[in-house]
Amino acid sequence: MASGCFRSRFDPRVTVGVCVIDDVQGRVFADGYTRGHSQPRTHRGHDAKFPGMAITYALMQRLEELVESDPQRVQIIKKARVTKVNKEGNKVTGVSYEFGGEECSIDGVVVLATGGYAADFGDTSLLKKHRPDTFDLASTNGTHATGDGLKMLMEIGGNGIDLDKVQVHPTGLVDPKDPDSKWKFLAAEGVYS
Ligand SMILES: Cc1cc2nc3c(=O)[nH]c(=O)nc-3n(C[C@H](O)[C@H](O)[C@H](O)COP(=O)(O)OP(=O)(O)OC[C@H]3O[C@@H](n4cnc5c(N)ncnc54)[C@H](O)[C@@H]3O)c2cc1C
Q1: Nearest CA to ligand 1 atom 36
Q2: Does 101 have pLDDT greater than 50?
Q3: Does any ligand 1 atom lie closer than 6 A to the CB of residue 87?
Q4: Per-residue exposure over 134-170, b if at least 16 CB sit within 10 Å of its own CB, e if not
């Protein structure tokens, strides 16, 4: 980690991101409040990039460097859809996935990072099950947020926790060409703070 990296008082996960970005691109973010925060947990970029974008780009850049420099260790498979977490007994052994119309599998340590389920409007919707009051609202989530990883883990005996904790944001931008669209663009806290 870079020498300029600091430990957050309030969210160690964010601090890791800050340290990494500082390490990779020499950028540091300041703490701040926005609406509804009881603690300062907003990081702002020093340049024009949104902090989330800056952090994500820096991590992707570093990962792509590792693919080049250490291909035995790091490989990226794009456009793959993970369908199942495989296990033997109580031990997770890898995942199955669809790639180019084929069923594939790979063994090894699994870290699932498939995001949330607030755009899960299908028959097996976790949103419908745990927050039916929000099911008919528009969503500002990406269409990928269908809870795939959660469902895969539940299929092999995992328990979900806090699945009713879904944030409902009060403001969104309506596309005048498609006002009834289920998908809206978030009008974030900056609009009213
Ligand atoms: C409109 C909006 C604004 C936000 N603003 C902020 C903000 O200002 N600050 C902040 O801190 N947070 C913000 N958030 C929250 C933040 O974006 C999320 O908490 C964060 O992106 C979640 O990261 P993640 O890696 O868990 O999931 P994601 O970023 O959702 O990534 C999940 C990835 O998994 C992939 N995936 C899903 N299923 C599969 C599958 N079966 N096989 C293979 N790949 C799969 C998806 O394609 C996606 O690339 C915002 C969220 C939204 C929707």
Answers
A1: 114
A2: yes
A3: no
A4: eeebebbbeeebbbbbbbbbeeeeeeeeebeebeeee
Phi, psi for 37 (deg, rounded to 5)? -90, 130
Q: Is the pLDDT of residue 41 over 60?
A: yes
pTM, entire model: 0.79
Residue numbers of the domain that contains 138: 116-193
Q: Is residue 41 located within the same domain as residue 100?
A: no
Q: For residues 44 and 101, state if they share a domain.
A: no
Ligand 1 atom with the smallest distance to the CA of 115 is 27
Ligand 1 geometric centre to CA of 141 (Å)? 8
- How far is residue 69's CA from residue 85's CA, in Å, rounded to a whole number? 29
Please identify, by atom number, the ligand 1 atom nearest to the C-alpha of residue 97.
42
- Taking only the tens place, the pLDDT of each residue in 105-148 is 999 999 999 999 999 999 999 999 999 999 999 999 999 999 99
Which residue's CA is the closest to the ligand 1 atom numbered 39?
A: 114
More confident residue, 172 or 11: 172
